[in-house]
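This protein record is not my work; I was only asked to verify it. The record follows directly below this note.
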Amino acid sequence: SGKLEFDLAVDGQETRRLPVSMTRTFLEDADPDVRRAALDGGNAAWRGVADVTAACINGIAGTRLELYRRRGIEHFLVPATFDAGITRKTLDSMWDAVQSRAEIARRYLRRKAKLLGCERLGFQDLMAPLPISSQRRVSWDEGRAQILDAFGGRYPALRDFAAETFERRRIDYEPRPGKRPGGFCSTSKLIGESRIFCTYNGALGDVVTVAHELGHAFHSHLLRGERPWASGYPMTLAETASTFAQNLVIDAVIDSPDASDDDRAAMLDGRMQDASTFLLNIHMRFLFEKTVYEERADGELSVDRLCELMLEAQRSAYGDALDPDALDPWFWASKLHFYITGISFYNFPYTFGYLFSTGIFARARQEGPSFLSKYEELLRLTGSHTAEDVARASLGADLEAPDFWNASLDLIEADLERFETAIDARF
């Protein structure tokens, strides 16, 4: 894939030969012709190496299934749920809740289609920007003050930790030539400190990214006194503190009397974009991979069959929210997650973490400051307990039952209604 290139052929423009890694950039373009050309061009490139990618996915799944059989592992999801620190019953409970309320995210996509001027979205439109994106630029000093104010209003201990992180210059935020976009947090157990990397360009989304990474650093800060093996948490619990922190900032922007209608709409659109990703797109990936393993047990899958399974998974997850003639049968070939040899089902932990952190944030809203001590205890337990034990001990919640998941989905549905209200006010 590092050598793969595609042709971006847009009507009225000169065709460009580009690395296939740039496809995602063009799928976020405001021009629908560019998005369509990016998907078509990228898929043509992946179609050219389909025999290789199909051989890889068959080889990886087939090897695992044979090893599991020889080791007496009864089902291919057992290693995945063990690595994630959850039971199969919890996984099924979560997906049952997601499927039963998939219309929340589908409703958002239908509204997005209207805003983009089309009857239904195509797969190439899922990441398209809406015509309500906030153009306000926020300097680094303003963004830092915004984060500290948001944290201080709801979580003084997090505010103090963030202030120290800013003061000690533990964030590499300045854009410079050759610096990659995005953000991450890295922690040294040896010195008990974290460092944050991000490329801050002054958008509201950049402020949210810094808050997100500060949440990761705070999580590590709370675990600094634990032994090394009690400090490593599974992927299902890895986004708990980061999502909690970013939600504090998003709420502060939405509730601010100084925020414009575009600011509020942009923040709520970001939340609903997350909902469509974690409730629909990630579910699509899980459904596809699960069926691949079920069918691979009886023999290798052809390229055509892999494309068929991908389309079936997209129809199941997205329902009628997408144009049935504008789906993406080659998604399986282009998604790195299906080819990670060290871990299988690199998908459902994303949805778990999203809904788990959303449920915790909902609880914090309900209980106020008295919840924060329970929240910190929850974060300390993440490195040494299963997700079910963490939720039971800190929240009194049963993750194997639907109530917790539905409470999280209630909050997402409320955000959808706020988004619709903001859009109605904007247009």
User: Anything to note?
Assistant: The chain has 18 helices and five strands. The first helix runs from residue 23 to 27.
